[in-house]
Amino acid sequence: MAGASVKVAVRVRPFNSRETGRNAKCVIQMQGNTTCISNPKQPKDGAKNFTFDYSYWSHTTADDPSFACQRQVYKDIGEEMLLHAFEGYNVCIFAYGQTGAGKSYTMMGKQEPGQEGIIPQLCEDLFQRTGENTDPDLTYSVEVSYMEIYCERVRDLLNPKSQGTLRVREHPILGPYVEDLSKLAVTGFCDIRDLMDAGNKARTVAATNMNETSSRSHAVFTIVFTQKRRDQMTSLDTEKVSKISLVDLAGSERADSSGAKGMRLKEGANINKSLTTLGKVISALAEMQSNKKRKSDFIPYRDSVLTWLLKENLGGNSRTAMIAALSPADINYEETLSTLRYADRAKQIRCNAVINEDPNAKLIRELKSEVERLRNLLFSQGAEPTSTGEAPADPDHLIEDGEDGEEADSADSAEPISKEEAAEMLLETEKIIAELNETWEEKLRKTESIRLERESLLAEMGVSIKEDGGTLGVFSPKGTPHLVNLNEDPLMSECLLYYIKEGLTRVGQQDVDIKLSGHFIKEIHCVFVSELNDQGEGETPTCLSVCLSVCLLSGVRSPSGGQRCL
Ligand code: ADP
Ligand code: MG
């Protein structure tokens, strides 16, 4: 049972304008699937070669015969993973690399023809293929969640109501999961594209509010793909379920080089906790392979939220691919070399994927017997606490302290559990059963109500999500004055629109209509007044404030052109 190794690709992007402006030298060369990096300080003998499943040369343009476009990356990696998902395997693609190296471009890309990344292409392909099905006994369902891990906390990017952080829990049967993370039912590519878009915006808005850039968080887009086949003779259903995890990791650069200081340093260390743990897990898994030890020594999955949630994808039941994004520029030589070494280690990992046939029926059976067990336990505990053979580990462990991971993988630390704990576990298990028993119609209803909430919340915040029709370029909603991209993240690829409503629109840090944060943003930064004209359109908004900063002004676009500042 050798298992399949993790597919590893590297991809080098074009120079950005700053690099071109500084006359940067390209330190990367590619030949077939080999990548060569040369040390700009020792151009003669500093070159190192690495071989991967794919080496993508995206440094030039499409007229270069060796140029790798978005489509090719999808065809090689995305499509292969999608086909595995149709076979019933869990699959995972994660993008690694320093900030600005091209992770988001490779995973999400831009909403321009030919520029879409793996995620939108995979979703479109998925619905294309399911749409071609003519077998009446075969039905498909697709559910989506999108979360962000920031400072070891999980946030739901699709449900605005879950403002706080979600709990990462471990269920004795289900394993690690995020409690209350919304799993939205989708019926076609448009649904999923809208969710992706809403999630990307939520990510940017959150980053703006926290005065951070999204490059410091990990984004995990998950598709649960279920294929149900009805057997005509017996009228029995069999199911195959595949979880497709698409991960855009935080920038891999060290906290100190990204300018994290003081308070930020702590956050940086926390973000790096997931990333450094990922590194440790990959090293440990790679070592396990090279030593050909049968049993895994201890793999520190539990030490971070990211590795805990991706446990199966890293060393277990999954077909996994990693794409390492590389900067071509000489100034990034050290980081790029370290990314190449990281990718080189990941090559050695092997996963033992199995087809997830009928997992739900089996799961519900197991969960029911767990409920039974807990009920009995609670019943007998009326008098005195009893110990149980398989108390789950405390889920808070992995967030609060990573030290005591030694006993982690032994699921049966036979500690007695209290009545309260048993009652909580019972609730948790019943909640999971209820979720599994939900009908498709119920799921669709829930999805719709969350969508309405999401839209009204974003509209309240002054952010348009609907009117721009899902395009990422700057789109001016007709008849409504608005501000564009008040986000200080220079790498932001999403477009945010902030409406100036009729009447007063207050901009500032607290209790305002448009919330901004940053060094120079005052508590109440400025107030816009907008009056309707005869056609019912918003007239040129007037800014009442005298302290309007230049960055704000430059963002103002109004349909009637120009703005006045009193
Ligand atoms: P990361 O997510 O790793 O921080 P991005 O994907 O945001 O980096 O890429 C940084 C910038 O470089 C973006 O403007 C992006 O459009 C551009 N870019 C990255 N990779 C490519 C590529 N292969 N081709 C063209 N542009 C790219
Ligand atoms: Mg990014």
UniProtKB/TrEMBL annotation:
Start and end residues of each Kinesin motor domain: 5-349
Compositionally biased tracts (Acidic residues): 401-412
Binding site for ATP: G97, Q98, T99, G100, A101, G102, K103, S104
Domain of life where this protein originates: Eukaryota
One example of a Gene Ontology biological process annotation: microtubule-based movement
GO-annotated cellular components: microtubule
Start and end residues of each stretch annotated as Disordered: 380-415
Record family assignment: Belongs to the TRAFAC class myosin-kinesin ATPase superfamily. Kinesin family.
Protein name, per record: Kinesin-like protein
Organism annotation: Dicentrarchus labrax (European seabass)
